[in-house]
Amino acid sequence: MKKMSLVLVLLLLSGGACFAADVTAGSPQLQKCLKHIEEMPDIAAAEAQAWIKKNGGSEAHLCRAFAQSARGMHEDAAREFWALASSYDKTDAGRAVMMHNLAGKEFLAA
Predict the structure, then answer these.
(1) 90 contacts: CB under 8 Å, gap ≥ 6
(2) How far from chain centre, in Å, is Cα 104?
(3) How many other C-beta atoms can be found within 10 angstroms of the C-beta atom of residue 9?
(4) Which residues are CB-neighbours of 81 under 8 A, at least 6 positions away?
(5) What confidence tens digit (pLDDT) does each residue in 40-68 have?
(6) Cα distance between residue 27 and residue 67, in whole Å
(7) Does 14 have pLDDT greater than 90?
(8) Residue 24: is its pLDDT beyond 70?
(9) DSSP state of 49
(10) In 25-73, which residue ranges form alpha helices assigned H by DSSP?
């Protein structure tokens, strides 16, 4: 399978440019992680795991979810997106819907 740019993948998975713009506006650490996902998903997954252990918050979990997806670990990615969606349900309905959408797509891929 030919590699698509990460932005295109984000657009396809999220169903719109809003999420891709939001992700690309993230912290420098998230940007670094997302770049590694495109080039070296195994390294990105390890970095995301280390970031999570340092209390990296939702951005670290988002990075891990995309890394899991890129590595073909769709069930794990789905669970990660689902957990993110649950964390946003009461605070950011739009983001929660996007995370639920990504979780559903990963479950289907699994």
Answers:
(1) none
(2) 13
(3) 18
(4) 65, 99, 100, 102, 103, 106
(5) 999 999 999 999 999 999 999 999 999 99
(6) 17
(7) no
(8) no
(9) H
(10) 28-39, 41-53, 57-70
